Amino acid sequence: MIINNPKDLVEKIQKKKEINFIPTMGNLHEGHLNLLKIAKNKEHFSLVSIFVNPLQFSEKKDYDNYPRTLNNDLNLLKNNGVDLVFLPDSNFLDDSDNIKESINTEPLFKRLCGIDRPGHFFGVTAIMIKFLKLIKPSFLTLGEKDFQQFLIIKKLINKYFPKTKIILSPIIREKSGLALSSRNKLISKKKIKSAVKIFKFMELISERIEKSGLEYSELKLLQKKFLNEGFDKVNYLEVLKEETLGDLNKVPSKARIFLSATIDGIRLIDNYSIRKKVVLEDKTIKKT
Ligand code: AMP
């Protein structure tokens, strides 16, 4: 069942209990389908949206080039037992409201993708507010792949939609370790070999931290080394506290490695959770 109009959607889901909302931008792959699988396994009413949100793209070219494969997406969703698909019309955002203003000062916006994609998270929060007000889901299923986005949406939910619970899916990867992403299709076969190194590199950094500790200054050297692996640009390579994206310090904290690199003009992101809690002591990142 497909719905385009917000009013029809509200009518349709009025009496549904345990709605599990799964927002996507389409060009679906196993990563997205795992979100649906989670909702199905919990016997929730699964509602998947497909909408390429213009507000979250900093460059028009990136928005125009974003892969759109609607027919295939709809087939995949049907075959995987989706309950309802919401395909908003292009005028969906015309009357958007501005709650985003009150959370845009969060420090989370000023880290990682917030730096080299100005406006991106404003666009993400604007569309999420729109969706959440309309759907009022009991559950929202998101992927760990967009970890910063998850943290920002978590803040938004805690503040404005406390009845909605977030469910987080692990990152679904190819055998090579490459995180599935709609953007992978835009990368040439030759360059995909470099893209695979993103995961390998994070694995290596995690191992170093766990085994011998990693001098903080070495992280910058590693970033330069990584650039020579066939990338146009390394947008960031950072090890940050998982809950806040704050800098590491002497307080033992769960931490993640965050890496974004551009290849063939395509910007990829990934992250890797370090198993043990870590500290930054004597200018070295160490496990505790
Ligand atoms: P997108 O269509 O890229 O906006 O992603 C929609 C949702 O799917 C987001 O919650 C993403 O984090 C999630 N997602 C995308 N790729 C993956 C992946 N490889 N593994 C798990 N979740 C993913």
Quick synopsis:
The chain has 288 residues and is an alpha/beta fold. It has eleven helices and twelve strands. Strand 11 and strand 12 form a beta hairpin.
The main pleated sheet reads as:
6 strands, parallel
* CATH superfamily placement of the largest domain: HUPs
SS-derived structural category:
alpha/beta
CATH class of the largest domain: Alpha Beta
Tell me how many strands there are.
Answer: 12
Shape label: globular
- The radius of gyration is 19 Å
Task: Using the coordinates shown, work out and report the CATH topology of the largest domain.
Answer: Rossmann fold
Q: Report how far the terminal alpha carbons are from each other.
A: 51 Å
Helix content, binned percent? 25-40%
H/E element order: EHEHEHHEHHHEHEHHEHEEEEE
Strand % is 15-25%
Strand order of the largest sheet: 1-4-3-2-5-6
Question: Number of domains in the coordinates?
Answer: 2
Count helical runs.
11
Kindly state the mean pLDDT as a whole number? 95
Low-pLDDT residue intervals, each spanning 5 or more residues? none
CATH architectural designation of the largest domain: 3-Layer(aba) Sandwich
Give a list of the ligands.
adenosine monophosphate
Describe the protein.
- The structure is a single chain.
- With 288 residues, this protein is an alpha/beta fold.
- The protein has helices at 6-13, 30-41, 60-65, 70-79, 100-103, 113-116, 120-135, 147-160, 189-195, 197-211, 216-227, and strands at residues 2-3, 19-24, 45-50, 84-86, 139-143, 165-169, 214-215, 233-241, 255-263, 266-273, 278-281, 284-287.
- A six-stranded parallel sheet has the order 1-4-3-2-5-6, sandwiched between helices. A three-stranded antiparallel sheet has the order 7-12-11.
- Strand 5, helix 8 (147-160) and strand 6 (165-169) form a beta-alpha-beta unit.
- Helix 7 (120-135) crosses helix 8 (147-160).
- The longest helix is centred in the middle third of the chain and has 16 residues, at 120-135.
- Bound molecules: adenosine monophosphate.
- The site of adenosine monophosphate (AMP) has 17 residues, from helix 2 and strand 5.
